[in-house]
Amino acid sequence: MTDFTGPLADFDRALSLAATPDAPFDALLELTRAVVGTKLFTFMTADMKTETASRSYTSHPVEYPVSGTKPIHYDRWFDTVHKRRECFVANTLVDIDTVFPDAELIGRLGCGSVINLPVVLGDTLVGTVNMLDVEHHYTPERVALAKAWLSVPAKAAYLASRALG
């Protein structure tokens, strides 16, 4: 198994020095790149009281700006991530298109696979870490690495960002 203690130590150091709400997510992005790889990275927050989601962080602010909210859709993605609190994984653009209306833009950015990692605190889904890369990038091994190495840092980044906001 690959040793990610160096990137995890870098994440910890960056989180300790974070002074802006984006800094914890900048650190999480770098950790994600080291652990599973990602071309496009966003963090979405979920508010089940208002049934809306909002993008809190993005690696591509032009294509995926941090602004506004969108309604939560009750579909197979929702069942996987919100109800079962499991990662949603799609490894082709065709599969992504069955769930995400922006599949064409995703493809133009050179992406064709996705992992949506749920972030759960207090038994409530507070958001998702969204990692996208080329088709077939997110193998079962990479999905297992994301679960093992990114779940706790994602919670820490979310909490640190809120504390700094």
Automatic annotation (TrEMBL):
Q: Which SUPFAM superfamilies match?
A: GAF domain-like
Pfam families for this protein: GAF (PF01590)
Q: What name does UniProt use for this protein?
A: GAF domain-containing protein
- Lineage, highest ranks first: Bacteria, Pseudomonadati, Pseudomonadota, Alphaproteobacteria, Hyphomicrobiales
Q: Which InterPro entries does UniProt cross-reference here?
A: GAF, GAF-like_dom_sf
Record-annotated GAF domain positions: 26-147
